[in-house]
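Table 4 source record.
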Amino acid sequence: MEGDVMSEVATRRAGAREWAGLGLLALPTVLLGLDVTVLYLVLPSMAAALDPSAAQTLWIMDAYGFLIAGFLITMGTLGDRIGRRRLLLIGMTAFAAVSVFAAFAPSAESLIGARALLGIAGATLMPSTLSLISNMFPDVRQRAIAIGVWATMFALGMAAGPVVGGALVDTFWWGAAFLLAVPIAIVVLAGARSLLPEYVDPQAGRLDLVSVALSLAAILPGIYAIKHIASYGLDAGTAILLIIGAAAGVVFVRRQRRLASPLLDVTLFADRAFSTALAVLLIGLVGVGGTMYLVTQYLQLVEGLTPFTAGLWMGPPALAMFAAAIGAPLIARQARPGLVMAAMLGLSVIGYALLAGAGTGDAVIVVAGFAFVYLGLGAIAALGTDMVVGAAPAAKSGSAAALSETVQELGIAVGVALLGSLGTALYAAGMNAPADTSPEVADRLTGSLPGALSVADQVPAEVIEAAQETFTTGVNIASAVAGVAIVAATVLCLVALRHVRPLGADQDVEADPR
């Protein structure tokens, strides 16, 4: 009798309400993807208005991702305790309110603070949407389709971010990019109660505040240390932060193993596919995050394109990502997912090679290279997320979703910090000001390419050309470094994921949705 009940639950198919609910959940998912990348083309206009330092610029870019990464684990299980739909509504409201503040931020410092608050609010959204999908689609095949749509929407948001940001900057001002959250929040708040079910795990137990503190103490010092090392090198203070983060991580894991209701179920890492998929997502997003930061600046600062035109140039890579995010799961029904991911990452390596060899005036090569990079991202975003969530039982979908999003957000933020700082360091090391230049102008010339362009009317044209060539060399070297990491991720897919069977290979044919 029990087996019959379980079979009925396993094969129960979602109806029109659930699919409409998936469409509603796609809105905050697209929004978060947009918010990750929309600033890439907004950055030059924002820098002209707020005049941030090089360090402040990097904080504006990655404070959002760092705080999301720090709080995702907490928010992933908080929804199980207070209600996944309720957490989504709270987070959506907070995200919209802080976005309005960010749009009208009067200084770089206030924008950094707004981006940090957006990260905390955003941390409520991704695990809520993915865990709600697990509740709404109990049928295994339908759930796979729904997760594929979810991953595609996030990838689509990331891909569309530069285009949307460029259009808004050209039409309005840099702050308009943040106001996209307001209409999306209104629609989600209006439709959530009728389209989305509520879910509270009665076995979840109380939220362990000590574990929350330990998770933040493990993640945030490590993130800051990475940023500091990338910009200034290793020093005593940074070493202490790394030790604190590592020690907190060890204590956190030990505490989770003892708790009856842990903040994070660390036993999930025993699944090889789960752990490997997380590692591949982390490596892949590090490469994409840092490379996109440099490529979008190249298009505007070296090629002289307007934000909107640069956004249009990012259209082909966006289509490549979309095609991979949709196509990879379909191919993985016939071929092993690890092989599909490895093949698509192999194409990404070609893209990084093109970026490593591009020079000034090579916009077509740069965009083509980045399109290859995006092919790999689309594949690992769809298949990697499916592997992570599929390895966890439904009751632990919040933890699995939180871990998947943690490594992706952390990867983007670390990519901007590492590759962005590498590009900045290479520019500073390779750019020399003319001997007769004033100290103030010399600082601008050698500090960053935007700084050099701001004093273009005070120096000979060949000096600006040299600055653009120096910046492009930094893009070349950073891309080569990222390409080496993607080669390692490709090998990891081939070796550690070779046992994963094609999607649906173990499913009952009768459970196939019609």
